[in-house]
Amino acid sequence: MNALAAACAYDPVAYAAYKPIVGVLALNNTSGNTYADPLTHSLAGFAQASWHITPQWNFTGGVRVTYETKKEDVRTATAASPHIAISDTAPSWLASTDYHPIRGLMVYGTISHGEKAGGLNTTLLGQGTAASYAVPPETATNYEMGNVFKAAGVAPPINTDEQPA
After folding, report:
1. Contact status, residue 87 vs residue 40, Cβ threshold 8 Å
2. d(Cα 19, Cα 136) in Å, to the nearest integer?
């Protein structure tokens, strides 16, 4: 767990500031306005290379790193007006191999991991620190394998693909 995800963990003491004392009825006939000026800066670098191990077998690997800084000035009439800023580094990678055992047939497998940097949720302002407004990053890892068969003289190739749940 990275530092941002740890900062986003549920904190019952910080949450108590948002919990209505009388329940949902305490919010009847109330209104409020929150004004925010969000600003995001993003910088990314990537590299990908393929290695032809044999004439029939290829390996491709790639990496991407994204660095994002998110800042937000929030103004409201009922709560403090914080200046909130977070930054996060989001790594992504790919490893893929394909093999061509006979002419017209390719068998492949891919593993990839992606990450989307976290964000800020300033809809509920209260007694929390800047870290309590942080939303953790989203991550996904993809596993895929399949084959592609293209018979001579047949227009579309025949694909099969499997992505385990």
Report:
1. no
2. 22
Measured in degrees and rounded to the nearest 5, phi and psi for residue 84 equal -115, 135
Structure tokens that stand for 115 in this block: 């990450």
Residue 99 confidence (pLDDT) above 80: yes
Contact (Cβ atoms closer than 8 angstroms) between residue 49 and residue 37 = no
Cα-to-chain-centroid distance, residue 66: 11
- The pLDDT of residue 4 is 47
Parse the chain into domains and list their residue ranges: 3-162
**Dihedral sign from CA coordinates of 135, 45, 61, 100:** positive
Q: What is the DSSP string of the chain?
A: --HHHHHTS--HHHHHTTS-SS-GGGGTT----EEEEEEEEEEEEEEEEEEESSSSEEEEEEEEEEEEEEEEEEEESSS---EEEEEEEEEEEEEEEEE-SSTTEEEEEEEEEEEE--EE--SS-SS--GGGGEEPPEEEEEEEEEEEE--TT-SSPEEEEE---
Q: How much is the pLDDT for 155?
A: 67
pTM for the whole structure: 0.64
- Cβ 107 vs Cβ 98: under 8 Å: yes
Q: Tell which residue, 73, 86, 76, has the closest CA to residue 131.
A: 86
